[in-house]
Design brief:
Blueprint lengths: L3 E7 L3 E8 L4 E9 L6 H13 L6 H5 L2 E4 L5 E7 L2 H14 L2 E8 L4 H10 L3 E4 L9 H12 L6 E4 L6 H8 L5 E4 L13 H18 L11 E5 H14 L11 E6 L4 E6 L9 E4 L6 E6 L8 H7 L22 H19 L2 E7 L2 E7 L8 E5 L1 H4 L4 H5 L18 E5 L4 H7 L4 H11 E3 L1
Parallel strand pairs: 1-4, 4-10, 5-6, 5-7, 7-8, 8-9, 11-17, 13-16, 17-18
Antiparallel strand pairs: 1-2, 2-3, 11-12, 12-14, 15-16, 18-19
C-alpha cells in the first residue's frame, strides 16, 4: 500500500481516521477514538491511529503526510453584521456557512450597546462585518466599526466585507484597536450579485493561521501534514466535486443535496442552481449561491432533543410518542431514534429549501419564489452517524422528500436516496485538494443507494 493516504477529522466527540489506497481506489481502513481536545488533541489521534493499525499496515510516513479537518471545540464560530436582514446580513450568513462556520449571532443595522455586550460574551472566532453595496451606504458600517473597535477581548478577529467605499474609514478606526483585522471583497457589491468565494477564502486563512492554534489543533501538525479546513468545508468540497465532476475528465452525478445529522446540529448542503421549475414564477429576494450550506443548531439528535421536539410544532404526530420517552438513550428504542432522525432531516431540509407562495395583485394571482427551488434535484445523500447507522435509513431520508403536507416548501420531489455508508465524505473533500479524480471515483464507489 505505497499509495496509502490518511485523512483525519478532529471532531468534538470523535477523532476519525480514513485510509484510502489510491492505487486501487479502495477504502483501506477506517477508525475512530474519543477526541481529547480539552487535554491534548494528539492523544485521541494516537488512539485512532492505533485502532487503524489493527487492520492495515500504517507507517510513520503515512502519518506524516496525513491531511486533516476539524470541527472540534464547537467548530468555527462566526458572528455576522450587516445593514439589512434580508440582504447584507443574509449574504454574510451564507458566506459564513459556505466557509464551514457555525453562525452564533447575526445583527442588522446599527449595533446597540446590548448587541455589543452580547457579542463580546459570545466570544466568536470571527466577526464578519458587512453592510452596503459598493458606493452605497457607508454610515452604518463605519459606525459599527467604531463599536467593534471599542469592544473588549471577546472580539479578536474582524473580517470586513462590505461597501469598499468605506474601507479607508473602517481601516483607520479598527487600526486603533488591538483586533486582528482582514479586508475582503464586498459580499454584495450589487443588489443582484452575491460574491461569497473571496470571503470564504479569507475565513479559511484565519482558521488556518489563528483558530487551529487557539483550539490546540496545531499540536496535531507535529504528527501529520496539515489541518486544511473546517470539517463542513471539506464536506462542501466533496459535494461540489460529486455534483460537478472533474472538467474534461469525468462527469459528476449532477445537482444534489446532502443532509448530515449530528448530535448537536444538522447540516444541509446543496449544489443546484435553484431557479424556478415552473414558468411565470418571479424570483424575489437575494439570489442564493449554487453551492450552499446551512446549519441548524437546534436540530441535534442528542444534545438538542428538547429543541428538536419543540421545533416539530404542528407536526406533533411525528413525535407524539416521544415526549413520554424523551430521554431514551441511543439504541434503546429504534423507533424513537428513527422518528427523531427523520424529523431532524425533515425540518433542516425544509429550512434550507426555498418556498413558492401566491401573490395577489390587481392583475390576478402570481407566484413568488424565495430561496432555491430544489424540487428537481435528482439525488439526496444522507450522512452523519444517526443516518449512516440508522436501522431504517430509507425511512429517515424520506424526510427530505417533498410531501403533500409540505405546502409551499420547494424540497426535492422525487430524488434517488443514497447514504455515505462508509463515512468518507470529509476524506474525499480533503483528497479533492490534490487528486480530485480519485476522490470522485471513491465517492461514486462508496456512496450507496438505500
Amino acid at each position: 500500500m505505497d499509495r496509502l493516504r490518511l485523512f483525519i477529522d478532529f471532531g468534538s466527540t470523535f477523532t476519525k481516521v480514513c485510509a484510502f489506497d489510491l492505487d486501487s481506489e479502495e477504502l483501506a481502513g477506517w477508525a475512530k477514538a474519543p477526541s481529547t481536545v480539552d487535554t491534548d488533541v494528539t492523544e485521541g489521534l494516537r488512539n485512532a491511529l492505533e485502532e487503524l493499525k489493527t487492520g492495515i499496515p500504517v507507517t510513520e510516513e503515512h502519518i506524516r503526510t496525513a491531511m486533516g479537518c476539524s470541527s472540534a471545540a464547537g467548530g468555527l464560530r462566526v458572528a455576522c453584521i450587516g445593514l439589512t436582514r434580508e440582504l447584507t446580513t443574509r449574504a454574510a450568513r451564507l458566506a459564513a456557512f459556505g466557509a464551514g462556520a457555525k453562525v452564533v449571532a447575526a445583527y442588522s443595522n446599527l449595533l446597540s450597546e446590548a448587541d455589543a455586550a452580547e457579542l463580546e460574551s459570545l466570544r466568536p472566532d470571527i466577526v464578519l462585518l458587512a453592510g452596503g453595496t459598493d458606493g452605497g451606504d457607508k454610515k452604518n458600517i463605519v459606525r459599527n466599526a467604531e463599536i467593534l473597535s471599542a469592544a473588549g477581548g471577546g472580539i479578536s478577529s474582524i473580517l470586513v466585507a462590505g461597501n469598499k467605499s468605506a474601507y479607508d474609514a473602517v481601516g483607520e478606526i479598527l487600526s486603533r484597536s488591538d483586533k486582528h483585522v482582514i479586508f475582503s471583497k464586498n459580499i454584495l457589491p450589487r443588489l443582484d450579485r452575491l460574491e461569497t468565494e473571496p470571503v470564504n477564502e479569507k475565513i479559511r486563512e484565519i482558521f488556518l493561521s489563528r483558530i487551529t492554534a487557539s483550539r490546540g489543533i496545531d499540536r496535531a501538525e507535529t504528527m501529520i501534514g496539515r489541518v486544511l479546513m473546517p470539517t463542513p468545508s471539506a464536506v462542501l468540497q466533496a459535494a461540489k466535486l460529486l455534483a460537478d465532476g472533474v472538467p474534461h475528465e469525468e462527469a459528476g452525478m449532477g445537482e444534489l443535496l446532502i443532509v448530515d445529522v449530528g448530535g448537536a446540529t444538522t447540516d444541509v448542503y446543496s449544489v443546484a442552481d435553484g431557479i424556478p421549475a415552473e414558468g411565470g414564477v418571479s424570483l424575489v429576494g437575494l439570489r442564493e449561491p449554487r453551492v450552499k450550506r446551512t446549519v441548524e443548531g437546534d436540530l441535534g439528535l442528542y444534545h438538542n432533543l428538547d429543541s428538536l421536539v419543540s421545533a416539530a410544532g404542528s407536526r406533533e404526530e411525528d413525535v407524539r410518542a416521544l415526549r413520554a420517552r424523551f430521554s431514551v438513550p441511543e439504541g434503546r428504542d429504534e423507533e424513537t431514534h428513527v422518528a427523531l432522525t427523520r424529523l431532524a432531516v425533515h425540518l433542516a431540509v425544509e429550512r434550507h429549501c426555498g418556498t413558492l407562495e401566491p401573490l395577489y395583485t390587481g392583475g390576478g394571482i402570481t407566484k413568488v419564489q424565495r430561496g432555491k427551488d430544489l424540487t428537481r434535484v435528482p439525488t439526496v445523500i444522507g450522512a452523519g452517524g444517526p443516518i449512516v447507522f440508522s436501522p431504517d435509513c430509507r425511512r429517515v431520508l424520506l424526510g427530505a422528500v417533498r410531501a403533500e403536507e409540505d405546502g409551499d416548501s420547494l424540497k426535492p420531489a422525487s430524488p434517488t436516496l443514497y447514504r455515505d455508508a462508509r463515512y468518507i465524505l470529509f476524506a474525499a473533500g480533503l483528497l479533492s485538494e490534490t487528486e480530485p479524480l480519485k476522490a470522485l471515483h471513491l465517492m461514486k464507489k462508496y456512496i450507496c443507494p438505500v
